[in-house]
Design goal:
With 92 residues, the protein is mainly α. It has four helices and no strands. Helix 1 (23-36) crosses helix 2 and helix 2 (41-48) packs across helix 3. Residues 13-65 form the Myb-like domain.
Length: 92
C-alpha cells in the first residue's frame, strides 16, 4: 500500500491580514511612506512591519491616506465641468 506524505498544518507563507485597517496600521504606513516615499510597496509594507501585501498598502495610501485627497462635496464649478464634459463626450 502506498504511503501518503505527511500533511503539514503550518503555512509556508505568512498569512496576510485581510480585515479592516486599524488606526495604528494607518499611522505606521503613513510614517514609512513619509520616510521612503510612495513606491516599492512590498518593501514599504515590510519596513512598516505590517502583515499586509504591497498592493493593499498601495491602495490604502492612494485611496484613503494621501494628504492631497479631496473629501466632501464637489463645488459648483466642478459639477458644471462634469456636466459640460458629459454633454460633450457622453458616457466614455
Amino acid at each position: 500500500m502506498p504511503v501518503a506524505p505527511p500533511i503539514s498544518t503550518k503555512c509556508s507563507k505568512k498569512e496576510a491580514n485581510r480585515g479592516a485597517w486599524t488606526d495604528e496600521e494607518d499611522q505606521k504606513l503613513a510614517q514609512v511612506v513619509e520616510i521612503y516615499g510612495p513606491k516599492r510597496w512590498q518593501a514599504v509594507a515590510a519596513k512598516a512591519g505590517l502583515n499586509r501585501s504591497g498592493k493593499s498598502c498601495r491602495l490604502r495610501w492612494m485611496n484613503y491616506l494621501r494628504p492631497n485627497i479631496k473629501r466632501g462635496d464637489i463645488s459648483d464649478q466642478e459639477e458644471d465641468l462634469i456636466l459640460r464634459l458629459h454633454k460633450l463626450l457622453g458616457n466614455r
